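Attaching the record inline, Q. Sequence:
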Amino acid sequence: MKPASGSAARRSRAFAPAHVTGLFVPAASTRDPRSRGSVGAGIVLEAGVSAEAEWRPGPRRRVSVTSDLGHPLSISEEVANRLLGPRDGTLSVRLAHALPVGQGFGTSAAGAVATALAVARATGRTRAEAVAVAHLADLFGGGGLGGVAAILGGGLEVRVRPGIPPFGRVIHRPYPGRVFVGVVGGPMPTASVLGNRSALARVLGAADRLGPLVRHPDAERLWDASEAFTDRVGLAPRPVSDLLRGLRRRGARAAQAMFGRSFFASLPADRRRDDVLRWLRDRSVRAVELAPDTRGARSLPSPRATVDRGRATASAARAASVFSRAQSRRLP
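Structure, as predicted:
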């Protein structure tokens, strides 16, 4: 696909789903960084990050990346700059997040991919280029390991071989039912965990839980592996581990979202479900129930409105945070 040309503005939109990781093993030692990341497994969620991009060729080079978060997004900025390259013109990107950042929901990877797909379409770059740039920015920017590869498809995902296509391999299967995700504390930066030798040793020690899931990728084995990984690695802060024990005692499957002061859970389908919901409400837990995403990261129909100096367009302004809505209505 040739680079976009002419003086007319090019606008595009993209969406990348959030994602929870139940277990993982880092794999970051290969020479080619496109084959680095992690093996592991998790669930791709319907909520995520939306991006709107506009590129207008001109005499000066200017790149602006803004969001609903109100602070700089260095990974997405790196993605936008690398995809634009040396060309002159004004590139504006606006991001909207439906889930909290720094809480194990893969929002840095989702932001990188949404930015990459929107910018690539506006500037005439390919999807493969967009994915590679997003992966490298997330990898070297301290976002995570393997998040980009995981969200290129939907449902239950098992990362069998690290890296993005064609280097990595991810198995995707439909995930039955819905997933509860919740937060019980402030953000937990990924880099602070990955840089802890003791924590990494425990992660490697729990790696045997991945084998059965690779051979038989299904929801039951995912929950078995995720719960065992959470318990053996011991990265969950006390409020999270206490909450997980309470959920399990009431019949839910529950594990820490790696890495966050957060959890993801599957509630029982019988009358115990109401007991779980009451228990969570009584503790004022910020949580929301989501469906799994079924399609993975994707471009969206181009908007008619213009991205204007970092302000949200009409569609982005309506993209209210899932957790803001969850706080107002709490739980079902």
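The radius of gyration is 20 Å. The chain has one domain: 1-332.

More tomorrow.
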